Amino acid sequence: MALEAGEKAPNFKLATDAGDVVSRTSLKGKPFLIYFYPKDDTSGCTREAVDFSAAAGKFAKLGIPVIGVSKDSVASHEKFRKKHKLKIALASDPDLEAANAWGVWVEKSLYGRKYMGMERATFLVDAKGAIVQAWHKVKVPGHVEAVLAAAKSL
Description:
Elements: E1 13-16, E2 21-23, E3 32-36, H1 43-54, H2 56-61, E4 66-70, H3 74-84, E5 89-92, H4 97-101, E6 105-110, E7 113-118, E8 121-125, E9 131-135, H5 143-151
Parallel strand pairs: 3-4, 4-5
Antiparallel strand pairs: 1-2, 1-5, 3-8, 6-7, 8-9
């Protein structure tokens, strides 16, 4: 079930490519941005990560950490970060616990074939842990600008 604005952000605890663990508890009392994407180093996911990295300083000035999440391994995230000089945290969700909790592990269809996959989705969460805005089935062009505009309203 897809989460929407006004709902409480689910708990999560994920390893990052920086060797840290990021969790809802570690972010308590702070707004944050969490976005889910299908796969490291694919065209749309790379564009999205590069765009969020380009805006990382603007989010930091607002006090909003940006966390990208996929089911790829921490090692895959490390390679992805280095190759594209990414400036955002990348968290690994290999067991899909966070993806399921946030409602983004969904049935997809490609050429009539149905399969399970990660929905490209972004969630802006306020300091109280409530989802302020949710973007589902994200189209990458212009997305980061829309998220940044929403973040400025916090």
